[in-house]
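Lab channel / #folding
Pinned by the channel admin:
"Please post every new chain as: sequence first, then the structure tokens as a reply. Keep commentary short and put observations after the output so the thread stays searchable."

First post following the new format, from NK:
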Amino acid sequence: MRGMHAGAVILYQQNMASAPQLKDFVAAMQAHTSIPLLVTIDEEGGVVDRLGSLGFDARLPAAQDLAASGNPALARQAGAQSAAELKALGINTNLAPVADVRTVPNAVEFTRIFGDDPATVVTYAGPFLQGMRQSGVIGCLKHWPGIGSVSLDPHDTLPVMDRTRQQLETTEFASFRGLLALNPGMVMVTHVVVPAIDPNLPATLSPKLVQGVLRGELGYDGVVMTDSLYMKGISLRYDLGEAAVMSILAGDDLLEGAFDPDSMRFMLAALKGAIASGRLSVGRIDDSVRRILTLKARYGLLPVLPPSA
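Reply from TO:
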């Protein structure tokens, strides 16, 4: 926090012993920052309920169960409940909801998916997102470009999406398009190859999928966060330094991957080296800084200063 100026942190079970400990831990991290952190966690509900699994909160229902209820108000209630519990602990960002559309019965995310068509996903993920936002917590749509059609886990390998451009437009992209209209805080991009768009690079590192489709065609200019760059979908082919540089070149803003001081130094050295060599420009870095600071200001993490006279 002090020496390398982390802009965000992600919390897992190993960071939590009790609610008071977690609250103190988050406050201690924020006390060492000059610009407040995005403190993030995966609090989707169901099998991905970090706080509930340790008894911190009433268990949140899974996305699949919320959709099965037939009542979108319950999804809004779940989003608001998660946000209230997170905010009480000092956590300001929830890496949810999942915006993926299930197109195969054995989709890797199982009950984490709201439905089998874009309309269902938007009908329930949308209120969940709005419930969080109304409680002052940043939401994050994931996992761009949509991985409801893959049965292999990007934690373990690099899946390939066998989807035509037309299928993508009417299913995966349609879900994100509908939810982007709700102005989410962030979008998370993950590690999957989409041959119909880019047969060579995983989505996380693909300018065609981030700059070309997400930003260019869908018009999204908010923060794009990477999925963990140490997942094997990336690490089998690239080290953390190269993955960091390629992520920025692709159009990503927030890099999830440093897990200790050494790994963070390694990533920062790679980014600084890329700037020194001309591979990355300072202007490109500034683009991401602008998006991140704008998001922090939008959610009250930064004061919005009036223009100087």
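NK: Residues 8-298 form a domain with the TIM Barrel fold (CATH 3.20.20.300).
TO: also worth noting, The chain has a mean pLDDT of 95.
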